[in-house]
Amino acid sequence: MPFHHNNFERLGDTFRLKIGFDKSVVFSRDAGFLQYVLQKNQRNYTKSKIQTEDLAKYVGKGLLTSEGALWKQQRKLIQPAFHKKQLENLLDTMQKTISDELQKIKTGKPFEIFKVYNDLAFQVVAKSLFSGGVSDSQVKRLQHITEEAQKMLVRELRQPYLHWWFKISGTLQKNLNLTLEAREILKQLVIDRKGSRVREDDLLDMLLDARYEDGNAMDEEQLIDEILILFTAGHETTSNALTFTSQLLAKHPNYQQKIVEEVRAAKVETDSLMEFLRNVPVTTRIIEESLRLYPPAYFIDRVNIEEDEFNGMKLEKGTSLLFAVHEIHKSETHWENPMQFIPERFANKNYSDYAAYYYPFGAGPRMCIGNNFAMYEMVLAIAILCENFSIQQKKDTIEINPLITLKPKNAILTFERR
Ligand code: HEM
């Protein structure tokens, strides 16, 4: 990221880098350009090969990896399952899963927190989908396979010259076999649910109930693709954000106290989790500020279908565009004291006041379908965390590891029970 920052400072808010003979990549931190590509002229833009073909090899053609008519049809079908009203049904399961997972925090000594959040985020998606119908060993295996696929994808992207070796050494095939194993586990879970008379009102029930315009339901293979995608899209991003938020809270302990006070007061007011979520604005702002400073999806990429032009820059058909969300989030043009952690900047503001330069969940028709899900999950997790633990950090710095997502590095914190 410092490398990108220096390039932007040197070459301007939008610049082009030649890659090889005939290819170039346009990097931009111009929020207006991002809006043009993701919203205003989104019809002329598709996702990159990495987000579609390369990832689809492991997780199939679901929402994140599909394009065109298939994506449109799937988005329309799945969107209602992520409406706030439907998500309300998942909140009890989410809360219970989070409380159980946070029990794994070790107190009194330096402790690497990322692993706890990684398991937590996977468990939350798994339990939101399958309720009690999925065993611990099935969840563990699915998580292992999802993470192996992600690691393999990173290796393929970082070392494209080793593609031949991945192929002949059997590494690639081993990962593809793992994916097949995950599909078998999911198939069995779906068969079990279809055969059961119990209604769980969870995400799987929503996906099984959903009907296309012609009255048909999703076929089994498509359903499994979508489930694999929800695991992939919903787990690492959330665990990164929860880790960064905990590190920020360790650096700014006065905000831990604010959360504890707010959470205790909100719990007295209501037993409804949805109401509780509405009554904890300070906790919500802290997470929003963490997503501004450390957006897990720190780059958003697109490729144009037909030739285009923006602000005088000609974009030949097939140009790769990379939008640096982390740079837009730290622009002095849009944010006051952008490098500082100031959750109050979101106070008394509506999302529409800052939406033009705040993109943790993307924008336009392909904006994250799980944004409310993720916010509910993160607010509950941080509320439960602070209610039960105080957090300290020795180092003053927050280390990052920018891969496909912006990952934390050495997130070693010390927790004490409150
Ligand atoms: C902090 C957590 C999360 C962040 C920062 C995040 C961020 C994003 C971003 C930026 C995109 C758009 C990518 C693009 O336009 O190229 C996206 C798409 C997506 N996200 Fe999330 N996400 C998070 C959590 C989740 C969760 C919890 C789920 C599901 C349970 C989820 C499911 C998806 C799906 C399915 C897409 C593809 C949507 C489509 O193309 O129609 N995400 N996410």
Automatic annotation (TrEMBL):
Keywords, alphabetical: Heme, Iron, Metal-binding, Monooxygenase, Oxidoreductase
Similarity remark: Belongs to the cytochrome P450 family.
Pfam families (alphabetical): p450 (PF00067)
GO molecular function, one term: monooxygenase activity
Transmembrane feature ranges: none
Required cofactor names: heme
Stored SUPFAM superfamilies: Cytochrome P450 (SSF48264)
Presence of the UniProt keyword Metal-binding in the record: yes
InterPro entries: Cyt_P450, Cyt_P450_CS, Cyt_P450_E_grp-I, Cyt_P450_sf, Cytochrome_P450_Monoox
Positions bound to heme: C368
Domain of life: Bacteria
Protein name: Cytochrome P450
Organism (species): Marinirhabdus gelatinilytica
